[in-house]
Amino acid sequence: MSLVPLPRLIVEPLVRAALLEDLGLAGDITSGSVIPHDHRSTVVMAARQPGVIAGLDAAELAFSLVDPEIVMRRHLQDGDAVKPGDVIATIEGPSRGLLTAERTALNFLGHLSGIATVTAEIAAAIRGSKAAVACTRKTTPGLRALEKYAVRAGGGMNHRFALHDAVLIKDNHVAISGGVAEAIRRARAGIGHLVKIEVEVDRLDQLREAMETGVDAVLLDNMTPDQLRQAVAIVAGRALTEASGRVTPATAAAIAASGVDLISVGWLTHSAPVLDIGLDFLEAAIATDASPKRIAQVL
């Protein structure tokens, strides 16, 4: 599946808000007072640890919104794997603007690349099975579109984007409704014909009740691989099966081997470590980088 970029209309307001937060009411008073207005520089953006890149559109927008004269030339694309020292992009333009936008650009790129990287780790762990890795709604407020895009860049799939996308009946809904079947019936009576219904279960008897009532998908929460295998047999292809809970790169393969269709992982977006990506002035990068040939090859 090809990676479709997010429209600029979605990304730009998020980047603009981040820049405004950083600039405040007075702008970058350090760069404005220290750097001559006509000074220009070329910088290289390079990976400092292995991972998968995501967020280049946001990074480029950070620079161009600060100063339209800044030009970013990409040497890699979102979804590409990197090694330490790999040059991701070269950026040229007024030095004040480069320094003003640097942190915002790297914040977006490092955070989103971190999400793509851990997603790729889970995707690699379950390769060969029919299962796909999916994210959840456990995202940073305001950044959901970007974080879910980063999951796709890492080879994962998106779950529902928001509460209006699909019905997901969870344990609290079931408890208040008085049971799985009643919750499903109420949901079906209150939605349109194109909206899918998924119900969360943590016991096989709940699963049987859900299948007797009829649903589009079942979320099998915190089940062991053996329980998941039993659940897949009960469903027998009548609904999509999604496993969640206790998923790590070490446990993902056993979960996938149960035959589930999806494995949803909340920590992909709420706890992924930032991928270390640096921005260095060209002369300094050539002098200090362990692989200067990589820099020379892209200039």
TrEMBL record:
Q: What class of enzyme is it?
A: transferase
Q: Which family does it belong to?
A: Belongs to the NadC/ModD family.
Query: InterPro entries, from UniProt?
Result: Aldolase_TIM, NadC, NadC/ModD, Nicotinate_pribotase-like_C, Quinolinate_PRibosylTase_N_sf, Quinolinate_PRibosylTrfase_C, Quinolinate_PRibosylTrfase_N
Task: Provide the GO MF annotations for this entry.
Answer: nicotinate-nucleotide diphosphorylase (carboxylating) activity
Q: Subunit structure, per the record?
A: Hexamer formed by 3 homodimers.
According to UniProt, the name of this protein is: Probable nicotinate-nucleotide pyrophosphorylase [carboxylating]
Tell me which CDD domains the record gives: QPRTase
| Pathway assignment | Cofactor biosynthesis; NAD(+) biosynthesis; nicotinate D-ribonucleotide from quinolinate: step 1/1
Ranges for domain Quinolinate phosphoribosyl transferase N-terminal: 28-113
Q: Which GO terms describe its biological process?
A: NAD+ biosynthetic process; quinolinate catabolic process
